[in-house]
């Protein structure tokens, strides 16, 4: 009889996604240049936190306008676009901190910044921005994918940028994007005019 008992359904929750205005508010909430650059890099390139922490200075290819992500999930290399706006911020950051090997060195400087430090930066900055939503590095990665989708970038290209092996993983952002929801007309709006209840007696 055991084999006929159905498995319990797994609870599926949609990822938290910020609006573009909320993402900008997160960046504005910190005056620490290194922290702001870290957050911008995650969002601009859709990086996982482990990919961000292991970025090297040499991975920023300004001539080709790409960021080389080394040994991402599944031990695969990939390239993502280097935003011109992010490049300006990275140049200002480099002039101030002069990193040599790791783009975002930790303590000690010969080691990369830790995952825990990046998580703390996200949490503290989210609190400083007074947002009701909890902010994490993965939240910014979700925002990257969702905002691209809402800008009509095709799902296959987003899959490549995120480094997803399966398109089904990327397709979950179709459920998060509110573009289809906002562009759908409610049946109420298609009804003939009805009497205004505020004027009824």
Largest sheet, described in full?
3 strands, antiparallel
CATH architecture: Orthogonal Bundle
What is the SS-derived class? mainly alpha
Q: Supply the CATH class.
A: Mainly Alpha
The tally of domains stands at: 1
Number of strands: 3
**What average pLDDT do the residues reach?**
84
Shape: globular
Strand order within the widest beta sheet: 1-2-3
Q: Termini separation (Å)?
A: 64 Å
Rg estimate, integer Å: 21 Å
CATH topology: hpI Integrase, Chain A
Give the full name of the CATH homologous superfamily: Intergrase catalytic core
N to C succession of SSEs: HHHEEEHHHHHHH
Stretches with pLDDT under 50, minimum 5 residues: none
Please estimate the helix content.
40-55%
Count of individual helical segments: 10
Summary, kept brief:
With 201 residues, the protein is mainly alpha-helical. The protein has helices at 20-28, 33-45, 49-53, 84-97, 115-128, 137-150, 155-162, 167-171, 173-176, 179-182, and strands at 60-61, 66-69, 78-81.
